[in-house]
Amino acid sequence: MVTEKKRDKGRFWQLLLVSLVFVFAAAMTATLIGAARRVSPVVDADYYARGLNYGKDEEKTRNAQRLGWRISASYAGELLEIRVHDRGGGPVKGGNVTLTLYDGKTGMSEARAEGNVPGITETSPGVYSVGLKTAGGKDLTGKVVFAKGDAVISERVVILY
Fold this sequence. Notes:
This protein is of the alpha+beta class. Helices cover about 35% and strands about 30% of the residues.
């Protein structure tokens, strides 16, 4: 009789252990299926691509620093002029300039991008211009990015009205 109770206790622990393994396997399968079918809205569409290119982006910034590139901006008469100079003060021509404006409701690091400003053209060597108007004379903050070849430089811009 004592041996039968021990046998029943042993069988109970065996069944409990097998049941726990089965529950764990079922939970893992459900988690994997859910992860494969649904992407979290927190993850950006290009999240992994940006991660893979992170080192390349930093290398492009170091290249611009090594070349001594600088960005300066001036605003007059609804025209924003962006000048790009090298270490010797000479113009850096033939690059691509992107201007992204922010909504101004939050700080620069938390601001929502309102979008890139179209129509930036190189009007003379190293001088890139675009016409800007704001509704109600509102101040503008944004970011200017200049890219040419394997070098990229960026600067924050603030336009006060």
